[in-house]
């Protein structure tokens, strides 16, 4: 990878739209060299996307692949800025999405109000119909009632509808008939069926996912069509690919049908990029630490496989059950506020100074101490960022730390700044433990990939705390999430319920079920223009101990000859995940699924010859490290001048345009062939 000017050869472009900045990665297909651009996110994100491509020095006609990660769907759910919608459900099930599971985000706070459903009760309409648990038709859809409901929806001027019938997952006949009646009355309506979106048991989860998909479909569909149109006007005539939560991409056409899959688009990109950086450096096991200005996203990759969850949410109580890369987000970033609670204990986050006014050192009116201010006080950050575009005022940072932490706790300003960062690091370390140790993984077996604007400042300290031996810092830490959008294939997850004890399973019947799912996956890929020669199908089987509700997803080879290997894998994984295994206990199958993948041409990245030349510092500044009793004059290196093979011994600071890397005493940092910095952490 390189930051040199891109040539006019065919290029791939990836774009990650965040709340503050839109990041662009441009990869030259012929040379493998990459450069980046960063522009402010605009009220209409499409303008920012096009401005970013222009800032990258790329003509739309020269782009051969455009991949896009966005927070559009996430923000729409948070702000509830979507068109009015109606839910039509079975009589007696109107309040399913409001009753939820009866649990709370904060179990002990009975006064904390839960978020309201995405569709109000007055807009949840009911109709007579009933199918039993086995799929037997008990009460056919009352078509007269259905026609009346269609007229009511039309009269209200609503064109977004979620149809959620009880037990439709096993027999979708009534849902499909309701859809046909609605479509006849409102031909241009956007309709989501629970039997299409999530054909699985458990009404709340199925209804909630379908409702989220329905309200997002017009938002995502309109955005995708407009973006595709603007790109074509400029000369780009390939598919606009949108990154979804499962770690694959969809075309604009399919994104409208499965809009809720974009709800975790942005954070999935960072996890994918983290895995790529680690594997490129020779590490199959990695933990991603994406630390930005407001939050930190933690992901885990075990033997090349990112952890996937099948239940997540934007707002607690309203699950979205599309498969998603598991990412744990906490309120710890460069702008997180340090504060003292009622018990006089020092806390850090989740409150943030945001971009306005920002940390005190920005000089924009902020007065509360932040992690950024603490790093400035300790000399870990220089007095300017982004190549001099952002100037930092150490005096203002010192005043904030003094007034907010040092004076109230009776500390010196340096002691207070160190304490602020130790609390922030402890919060992030706890998040890593939740995703690793709690899942049965030993952090000592992993490499830590530190990226985001603030991640490389904290990476070494976290690794030492968690006994992680290696920290990897990618060439462009601040825009690494955009890189993740370049590294994905088209992907669909097709699932079906299959409740049966393993001893009762007929292998031929199970094989037939998987083949049917593969046919559906093949059709979805064909609709996206994927040829048969680029289709790959991976089978998975969800298993659980009889009587339990937690299931584990186990890979299954094709064709199926026996379930013995899958059962043995289930017992092993259950022991690792939950710390106990019962090989003699009865096991049942809960669900079967197929991951249908349409392979996109894989990117290849430039590698550089190793040099024996020593790294040369460009200056020095006084820096206080955790390991030393006082500040020391520390060499500062320019990352742009570091070549493959060069080594830097701590204590040292490495500055670059979009981040700062802290190399503590005793740590060595070496630049590998892809210009990733590999820090070796000495462990006791």
UniProtKB/TrEMBL annotation:
Residue ranges of every copy of the Hydantoinase/oxoprolinase N-terminal domain listed in the record: 12-185
GO molecular function: 5-oxoprolinase (ATP-hydrolyzing) activity
GO cellular component: cytosol
Residue ranges annotated for the Acetophenone carboxylase-like C-terminal domain, each copy included: 506-673
Limits of the Hydantoinase A/oxoprolinase domain: 206-493
One Pfam family linked to the record: Hydantoinase_A
Domain of life: Bacteria
InterPro entries in the record: ACX-like_C, Hydant_A_N, Hydantoinase_A, Oxoprolinase-like
GO biological process: glutathione metabolic process
Protein name (record): Hydantoinase
Lineage: Bacteria, Pseudomonadati, Pseudomonadota, Alphaproteobacteria, Hyphomicrobiales
């Amino acid at each position: 990878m390189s930051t040199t000017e891109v040539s006019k050869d065919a290029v791939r472009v990836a774009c990650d739209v965040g709340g503050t900045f839109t990041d662009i990665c441009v990869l030259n297909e012929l040379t493998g060299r990459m450069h980046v651009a960063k522009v402010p996110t605009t009220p209409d994100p499409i303008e920012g996307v096009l401005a970013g491509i222009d800032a990258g020095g790329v003509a739309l006609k020269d782009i051969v692949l455009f991949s896009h990660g966005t927070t559009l769907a996430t923000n729409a759910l948070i702000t509830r800025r979507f068109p009015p919608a109606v839910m039509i459900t079975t009589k007696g099930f109107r309040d399913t999405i409001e009753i939820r599971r009866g649990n709370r985000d904060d179990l002990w706070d009975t006064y904390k109000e839960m978020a309201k459903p995405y569709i109000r009760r007055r807009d949840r309409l009911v109709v007579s119909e009933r199918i039993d648990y086995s799929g037997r038709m008990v009460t056919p859809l009352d078509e007269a009632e259905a026609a009346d409901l269609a007229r009511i929806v039309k009269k209200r001027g609503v064109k977004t509808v979620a149809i959620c019938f009880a037990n439709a997952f096993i027999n979708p006949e009534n849902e499909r008939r309701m859809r046909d009646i609605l479509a006849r009355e409102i031909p241009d309506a956007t309709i989501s069926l629970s039997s299409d979106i999530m054909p699985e048991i458990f009404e709340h989860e199925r209804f909630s996912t379908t409702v989220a998909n329905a309200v997002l479909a017009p938002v995502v569909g309109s955005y995708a069509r407009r973006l595709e149109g603007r790109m074509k006007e400029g000369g780009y005539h390939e598919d606009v690919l949108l990154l979804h939560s499962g770690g694959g991409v969809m075309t604009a056409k399919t994104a409208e049908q499965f809009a809720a899959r974009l709800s975790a688009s942005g954070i999935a990109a960072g996890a994918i990029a983290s895995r790529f950086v680690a594997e490129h450096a020779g590490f199959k096991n990695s933990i991603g630490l994406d630390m930005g200005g407001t939050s930190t996203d933690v992901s885990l990759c075990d033997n090349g496989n990112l952890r996937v969850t099948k239940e997540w949410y934007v707002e607690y109580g309203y699950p979205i059950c599309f498969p998603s890369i598991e990412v744990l987000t906490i309120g710890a970033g460069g702008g997180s506020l340090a504060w003292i609670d009622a018990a006089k204990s020092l806390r850090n986050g989740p409150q943030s100074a945001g971009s306005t006014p920002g940390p005190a050192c920005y000089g924009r009116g902020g007065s509360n101490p932040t992690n950024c201010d603490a790093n400035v006080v300790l000399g870990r950050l220089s007095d300017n960022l982004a190549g001099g575009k952002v100037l930092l005022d150490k005096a203002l940072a010192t005043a904030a730390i003094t007034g907010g932490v040092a004076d109230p706790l009776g500390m010196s300003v340096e002691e207070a700044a160190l304490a602020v960062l130790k609390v922030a690091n402890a919060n992030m370390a706890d998040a890593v433990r939740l995703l690793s140790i709690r899942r049965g993984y030993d952090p000592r077996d992993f490499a830590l990939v530190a990226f985001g604007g603030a991640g490389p400042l904290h990476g070494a300290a976290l690794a030492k705390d968690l006994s992680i031996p290696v920290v990897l810092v990618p060439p462009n830490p601040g825009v690494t999430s955009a890189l993740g959008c370049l590294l994905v294939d088209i992907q669909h997850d097709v699932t079906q319920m299959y409740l049966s004890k393993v001893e009762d399973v007929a292998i031929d019947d199970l094989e037939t079920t998987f083949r049917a799912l593969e046919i559906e996956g093949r059709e979805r890929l064909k609709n996206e223009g994927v040829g048969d020669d680029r289709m790959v199908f991976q089978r998975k089987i969800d298993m659980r101990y009889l009587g339990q509700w937690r299931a584990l997803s186990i890979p299954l080879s094709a064709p199926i000859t026996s379930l013995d290997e899958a059962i043995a894998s289930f017992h092993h994984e259950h022991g690792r995940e939950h710390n106990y295994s019962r090989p003699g206990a009865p096991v049942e199958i809960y669900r079967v699924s197929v991951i249908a993948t349409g392979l996109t041409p894989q990117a290849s990245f430039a590698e550089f010859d190793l040099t024996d030349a020593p790294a040369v510092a460009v200056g020095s500044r006084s820096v206080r490290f955790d390991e030393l009793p006082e500040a020391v004059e520390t060499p500062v290196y320019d990352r742009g001048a570091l070549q493959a093979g060069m080594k830097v011994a701590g204590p040292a600071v490495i500055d670059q345009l979009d981040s700062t890397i802290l190399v503590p005493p005793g740590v060595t940092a070496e630049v590998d062939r892809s210009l990733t910095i590999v820090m070796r952490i000495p462990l006791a």
